[in-house]
Amino acid sequence: MENKKKTSKLTIIKRLLGYVFSTYKLQLAVVLISIIISSLVGVAGIEFIKYLIDDFITPLLGSQNPDYTALLNVIMTMALIYLVGVIATYIYNRLMINISQGILNKIRKQLFEHMQKLPIRYFDSRPHGEIMSIYTNDVDSLREMLSQSIPQVFSALVSMLTVLISMFTTNVYLTLVVIAMMVIMIFVSKYLGGNSSRFFVKQQEDLGKIDGYIEEMMEGQKVVKVFNYEEESKKKFDELNENLCDSNAKANMYANILMPCIMNIGNLGYVLVAVIGGMLSVNGILTIGSIAAFLQFVKAFTNPLGQVSQQMNFMVMALAGAERIFDLIDEEVEIDEGYVTLVNAKIENGKITESKERTGIWAWKHPHQDGRITYTRLRGQVEFENVQFGYEENKRILHDITLSAKEGQKVSFVGATGAGKTTITNLINRFYDIQEGKIRYDRINIRKIKKDDLRRSLGMVLQDTSLFTGTIKDNIRYGKLDATDEEVYEAAKLSNADRFIKNLPQGYDTMITGNGEGLSQGQRQLLSIARAALNNPPVLILDEATSSIDTRTEKIVQEGMDKLMKGRTVFVIAHRLSTIKNSDLIMVLDHGRIIERGNHKELIAKKGTYYGLYTGAIEID
């Protein structure tokens, strides 16, 4: 992840409260009232001990004919008060579960919806496992804070306040002893809790790193085994795991020490109060009931303080997770300043107009500043004019790229790895924006075209095919979500995918999981071609689409691609030069520059770089 300026904890809390107050104002009010009632019932129970001993039990001890009616009545009254406390506790815990899950549901939706709007650059520059860690570890820590830590802390603070007031009304001197012990507790809590919180935050960061590494190793498991990288991967994992273990151990060490320290300081205070209280009782200053109640007040005061100290660790960890959540939500979305849209069109008397029905004809709808709207038929003509580009602002990797792909032409790019072939096709899609120059699509600057409409007019078949959990039919339908079953079947036949699909157990309804587990690379590639065929784009980008399959399968895939390429503008990136011999235009790239251009015959005749690549005198890589 990129280093960002740390967001203040107060700002994060305000944002979290924003989720609460936007939807759960009434429920939160009920929660607060229930917590206060529950806390007051606890204090009332301790006060009850004093009156029970002094006003009911002590008089009965010296009575010859004790009457227990009043004692039973007061005990029943107190039982009802405790019942109210139980109900209040149940209500606020139940409501906090609903509130916390509702907030997390909203946050997860917001995270995912926002993630769909982020540019490709964001995902290219971050380990996917770290992003997944935000959805799992960070959201889960936030759940614990919202459903448990915050209610417990608020309940503890209310209890401590009410208990402190009751102690002052009982005896000021004993209360000052308790306050002195509380000051010591606060200092101890600040030291131990601060260290614990620091390591809990580091633990979350280390957890994100190890999740990212595990995700990488799982995706590249075949490569790990092929190159016998198991031992090295274990060493790297052990290093990350040791870091996580260290931060986890230190965080929990301080956290586990904290509560016993607080409790023992509290016990020391309890003993001091008992000794001093006993002396006051002997001198007739305090009653037995008051001492008994005050000792319970000490426990009721020190225990919540320990709970607050412990919960603060989890809250700090959750706030660190919330910061990462909000960092993702605050990431700048993909900027789209385009206003030219793709519409269904019809042609009458040579004039293009917009159509509400599907006509099979597409046009660019171009609104102008003077109020005019013009329509340009979608043909698939792409032009680069002096394009300069770099993934980093001060480091150019494409230099002065100028080319023109006319409607229906097949344009191929060849060159060494890193020459800029794939980068050029990424610019057509506007996955990245150029720093200088212009790219025109049907003579319209692509910056003026809305990105969704631009990408709808383009088809891509990549070397690495992405399939999703669902049926074969669903995966092909990604190319056109509202396509009929018949359209799906036709696209599969066009791409030659129909041949193997019919031999699957459930045919087009066969379920795919794990990015096409059980399908060969060639079969996955055919599904990718079928997806592009269903989209029926005027411009097609083939990025080394056959480089990872065998020669026999390549013939089947190539046949499907040849059908798909007919009548379209096609950009091809290929390592096998035999597949691009029939290209209308071949561009030879070297370090981000076009060093040769022409068709196969022209470039062979030049006996330059392309000739060397084709004859094997020069290795592509």
* SS summary, helix count: 18
Largest sheet: 6 strands, mixed
Indicate the CATH architecture of the largest domain: Up-down Bundle
Approximately how much beta-strand content do the residues carry? 5-15%
Say which CATH homologous superfamily of the largest domain is assigned: ABC transporter type 1, transmembrane domain
The number of strands is 16
As a percent range, the share of helical residues equals 55-70%
| Unreliable runs | none
What is the count of distinct domains? 2
- The order of strands across the largest sheet is 10-13-14-7-15-16
Short characterization:
It contains 18 helices and 16 strands. With 621 residues, it is α/β, with parallel strands linked by helices.
